Amino acid sequence: MSRFELPPALRVAFWMAISALFFGILMGLVRHVGQDMHVLTISFWRFVFGLLLFIPWFYRMGVVGLQTGNMKLHVFRSCLLICSSVCMMSAVLLMPLDEATALSFTTPLFTVIGAIFFLGEKAGPRRWAALVIGFAGMLVILRPGIEIFNWAALLILISAVTFAGVVLCGKVLIRTDSPEMLVAYLAMISVPLSFLPALPYWQWPTVEQLFLLVLIAFSSNMNMYGIAKALQNGDASATQPYDFLRLPTMAGVGWLVFGETSDLFTWIGAMIIFSCTIYITRREMMEKRRLETVEAGLPGGGPGAS
Question: Model-level pTM?
Answer without folding.
Answer: 0.76
